[in-house]
Design brief:
It is built from nine helices and no strands. By secondary structure, it is mainly alpha-helical. It has a single domain, classed as Up-down Bundle (Glycerol uptake facilitator protein), CATH 1.20.1080.10. Helix 4 packs across helix 9, helix 6 runs antiparallel to helix 7 and helix 6 packs parallel to helix 9. The longest helix is centred in the N-terminal third of the chain and has 29 residues. The N and C termini lie far apart (about 45 Å).
């Protein structure tokens, strides 16, 4: 029984990915709602949203990395599988856990602010520019992780990933979703952080393309180094 439910088991890892993704999405959506409650200035609202996400993301990675690796992101898990670092069953389990965690994370944020538990966003985000932004945000994220791992600098990942996402909130046109699970979860809130269902598939496609580019960049730098 201990082995089946231990933190080193696949179930324990999946639970960590589920919980971490749920909390991350709750932070993204919840801080977005709080931001618009506090300010009518979209720049200020985005800054509040970004700062909250940066802090929570770094802490969640730091806390849960020893259990599951703290992916919280199907793009990262798919790249790990493509590189042969994860078996197909584990990668699939991670992706399912991440997407499954994103939806209740959104619901939690909605009800925490006395809103309807389940909403459907009408916020259309897809343009050519935001597609490019998602490719760039995800490529940078995956490349950064790959480079740090290849140089045995895993201890820097919580700070580095949080810093990249925080920066990409402002320099990408898409505000750096960079995560298919988070993207799906954000369908279910008609608030500042929401995304319309029609924008989800293009965003996810951009994220997967970005993940492939980031993987190739990391491998190229590793080979040069």
């Amino acid at each position: 029984m201990k082995r089946c439910f231990g933190l080193n088991s696949l179930l324990g890892k999946a639970l960590a990915e589920f919980a971490g993704t749920a909390l991350l999405v709750a932070v993204v959506v919840g801080s977005g709602i709080m931001a618009t409650n506090l300010s009518n200035d979209l720049g200020v609202a985005l800054l509040i949203n970004a700062l909250s996400t940066i802090l929570a993301l770094g802490l969640l990675i730091y806390a849960l990395a020893p259990i599951s690796g703290a992916h919280f992101n199907p793009a990262v898990s798919i790249v790990e599988f493509a590189l042969g670092k994860m078996k197909a069953a584990q990668a699939l389990t991670y992706v399912v856990a991440q997407v499954a965690g994103a939806v209740p994370g959104t619901i939690l944020a909605n009800v925490m602010f006395d809103q309807s538990a389940i909403q459907i966003s009408a916020h259309s985000r897809f343009t050519t520019g935001t597609f490019i932004g998602e490719v760039l945000a995800t490529a940078g994220l995956v490349a950064l992780i790959g480079i740090l791992v290849s140089r045995n600098r895993q201890a820097l990942i919580p700070v580095a990933v949080a810093a990249w996402i925080g920066s990409a909130y402002f320099f990408t046109s898409s505000t750096a979703f960079a995560n298919p699970a988070v993207t799906v979860g954000r369908i279910f809130t008609a608030t500042f952080a929401g995304i319309a269902p029609t924008s989800v598939l293009p965003f996810v496609a951009a994220q997967l393309i970005g993940a492939l580019i980031g993987m190739l960049i990391a491998k190229g730098i590793k080979n040069v180094g």
